[in-house]
Amino acid sequence: MSGREMMASISPPTTEQAEGIAASADMGTMPAGQSWPSARRAWTCVALLACAHMINMFDNGLTGFLVTLIKADLQASDAEMSLLIGFAPVAFYALVGLPMARLIDRYPRTIVMPIGSLFVGTFTLMCGLAQNFWQLFLARMFVGSSATVNGPGFYSLLADYFPPHKLSRAIAGMQVGFVLGTALASLLGGVLVAMAIGWGTSDWFGLTIRPWHKVYMVGAAGAFLVSLILWSIKEPDRRELATLKPGEKAKMMPVSETLHEVWRRRAVYLPLFLALGFMSLEMGGIAPWRVAFMERNYGWDVAKIGAWSAGTMLIFSLIGLPLGTWMTEFFQKRYDDAPVRAILVSWVIALPFSVAGPLMPTGELMMLCTGVGITFAMASAIPQNTAVQIITPNRMRAQVTAMYLFMMTVVGGLGANLLTAISGALGGEAYLGEAMALAVAIMTPLAIICVMTGLKPYAREIRERREAGVM
């Protein structure tokens, strides 16, 4: 797409669209007979979603600690491992992401999401029983079903529990689960792998169960626990039902209409989507290989890597979340493009530190550079989610969220393959660090350019919505 097309002006909302957006953007004023859930119920939902998010991220982070063991046992190449840790878990998302988001829009979320987590637990357990590469690949592929419902479902629930002016803080609260889960995976993942190695290899009904199989079994237990947590959340009333006329049924936008609306407003949406895609391609390539890189390059064992990674993730992420909130609110007082501008500033600051990290002579210096990059990556997460949610009508929000997460999950899943391709072009596995730095040096500037092209269209969209009286 050309820069001219990216900057094309968007048509103002129609009267019908303005009314629909106004209903979803009303700053806490609800129609007679329908009030917002109590603060206690709402924040209980945030706490439960944060717990579920934490466990999911812990489970997702375990595979990075298993790369060396799986590669040795299955005699797989780096390219095959990239398919396993990158492509496999997102393939299912690519196929069913939007249809599953429609389920979130149409049926009780506290039923759809727990069922999805049950499937995740079942297929994670199958990872713990896989006897060859392709069995593990297929099981990992179906594990990706979790992301098809949890992301859109989490945001949909929060939007019905909190009025818009309080939604960003609820999202930040939920993101604490991401931080804690990732930190726990880094800290306990290495410990768990070390324990599993101590358990040794065993036979079970003719199957050879190696240490990495047992780690996956622990992960399966976590997915089943997530299902119970999600089942305990009380389904809130959907906000759009309050605006219906007597006897009128709620109608969600079909996928075709949602795609048409996103394309019609492409000058606003595409820069955000493409920017996230480039950043996800970078992060999806580096994260799964970071443990293996530190083992090879610095001689660290998984326990030490886990302890340092956990501390780095926890400290710098908890700095980044309030920083992102502050930047967004600071720019909101001065610019119509506030969330997009906050994203831009965060990524520009993160760029040099993220490039330098894998080129550092010691593991400690790499972790320090990585930590600064994490701070501003987490800071950008708040305005990224805010930017999409506040311009998207409620009746298509889950589907648009699924499209947005598609860029992170599916495109990001290809990053591991990109990294092995770059290292191969540079000379092989010995150049993994240089490949990581080069991936950042290419992808982050492309993401920054996309965000820059989206500043004016986003500001224009906000002004038009304000003039139409829907903000």
Helix content, binned percent = over 70%
Give the overall average pLDDT.
80
- Spatial order of strands in the largest sheet: 1-2
What is the CATH topology? Answer: Growth Hormone, Chain: A
Sheet bearing the most strands, described?
2 strands, antiparallel
Count of spatially separate domains: 1
How far apart lie the N and C ends? 30 Å
Low-confidence stretches: 1-33, 241-245
The assigned CATH architecture is: Up-down Bundle
Number of DSSP-assigned strands: 2
Strand content: under 5%
Q: Provide the gyration radius in Å.
A: 22 Å
Principal-axes geometry comes out as globular
Number of helices: 18
Which assembly state applies to the chains in this document?
Answer: single chain
CATH superfamily, please?
A: MFS general substrate transporter like domains
Q: Class, according to the CATH hierarchy?
A: Mainly Alpha
List the main descriptive attributes of the protein structure presented here.
single chain, Growth Hormone, Chain: A, 18 helices, globular, disordered N terminus, mainly alpha, two-stranded antiparallel ribbon, 471 residues
Describe the protein in words.
InterPro entries: MFS (IPR011701), MFS_dom (IPR020846), MFS_spinster-like (IPR044770), MFS_trans_sf (IPR036259). One of its GO terms (molecular function) is transmembrane transporter activity. It comes from Altericroceibacterium spongiae. It is a single chain. The chain is about 80% helix and about 0% strand. It is an all-alpha fold. The radius of gyration is 22 Å and the shape is globular. The chain has a two-stranded antiparallel sheet with strand order 1-2. A hairpin with a 2-residue loop joins strand 1 and strand 2. The chain has a single domain, classed as Growth Hormone, Chain: A, CATH 1.20.1250.20. Helix 3 runs antiparallel to helix 7 and helix 8 runs antiparallel to helix 15. The protein contains 18 helices and two strands. The longest helix is centred in the first third of the chain and has 36 residues.
